[in-house]
Amino acid sequence: MQEKIFREIIEQAPDGILFADREGVIRLWNRGAERIFGYSAEEAIGQSLDLIIPEKLQQRHWDGYHQVMAEGQSKYGTQLLSVPAKHKDGRRMFSDFSIVMLRDETGRVEGVAAILRDSTTQKATEKELRERIKELEAAASPSS
Question: Which class does domain 2-119 fall in?
Answer without folding.
Answer: alpha beta
